[in-house]
Amino acid sequence: MLDSERQKGSTDKNTQKNTYKDTYMTEHHLSAEPTHSRWNRALPPRLTIEAGDTVHLECVDSSGAQVRPGMTLREYLGIDRNKIHALTGPVAVKGAEPGDVLQIDVLEVAHKGWGWTSVVEGLGFLKQRFFEPHLFLWELDRDVSRSLAPAVVPLRPFCGVMGVAPAEDGEFRTRPPGIFGGNMDVRELCSGATLYLPVQNHGALFSVGDAHAAQGDGEVCINGIECPVDATLRFHLHKQRRLAGPLIDSAPRVSQDTETAWIVVESAPDATHAAREATLRMIDLLVDRWEFSAVHAYLLCSVALHLKFSQVVNEPMFTVSASMPKTVLPARRLF
């Protein structure tokens, strides 16, 4: 029996082996339930895998499957908000230790045909103006939604929360992101992207959820198109590699408004501080991996770096992405 089959709540249905770099890896299936809505490194893993394995994860919507098609606003106002960010996991990776880097390849994120967006009193970037509760239900075609006519909204599903358990003891709300990843809401984490996270605990203890079929940078009203998804992720481990926080290798270009890039992600209570730290980390990356002098890296950031808000609503933290287009730099493998 595989170790993963012994984990409570796992549904490992596929023992097919695949060759990758002269090793064998296994595909696993993990159901959503039981979900968890707090970070806590004491949570036992629901699945234990080898580095190189692929996991198909079922993710409920961010409400914890409380919102449903046809729901009324009155019903929505009665949901249990302690279940927000219902996450699938944790997944433990054998051999992962603090000081390592966990690589997560986003192979596919597939929505299930519907989603929702809301306005909640006291939340959102413009909460002083938009305080009346509102619920909007979306029907999703494969690549677009026409529910909010006359707009045609392109869909690019991704998981807003992807993270490893924080290093500190205790239970923590999932809204604030951090160096461990978490509720970053970076829309570039769609199918084809790769996320790198610094491991904080033995086994890494990775969880995922809060999927969006589409989201604007900033996520200004508090939601994207919240939806259930099936996410297929592949995990690799890089032993004893320094990484100060989340790093993204974006997916291949899928439209005119996207470009392949290296993306550094920083979150802080002060947006200016987050932007400054993201820029400093990009300068360090350019110096370390492309051998620029520090001052030349600084000049390059001034003429080519894109700083933008990924989210401005996960109080008390703002998330800033610093994106350097790959067309600017010689090709490199960073890990």
Strands of the biggest beta sheet: in what spatial order? 1-2-5-17-7-15-18-19-21-20
Describe the largest sheet: 10 strands, mixed
Quaternary organisation of the protein chains: single chain
Structural class: mainly beta
The count of DSSP E runs of length 2 or more, i.e. the number of strands, is 21
Spatial separation of the terminal alpha carbons? 32 Å
The proportion of strand residues reads 25-35%
Query: What would you report as the Rg, rounded to the nearest angstrom?
Result: 19 Å
Total number of helices: 3
- Sketch the topology as an H/E string, one letter per element: EEEEEHEEEEEEEEEEEEEEHHEE
Uncertain residue ranges: 1-22
Helix content: 10-25%
Look at the structure and give the mean pLDDT. Answer: 90
Shape verdict: globular
Report on the structure:
This protein has 335 residues and is mainly beta. Helix content is 10%, strand content 34%. The strands form five sheets. A ten-stranded mixed sheet has the order 1-2-5-17-7-15-18-19-21-20. The longest helix is centred in the C-terminal third of the chain and has 20 residues.
Short structural summary:
The chain has 3 helices and 21 strands. The protein is mostly beta strands and 335 residues long.
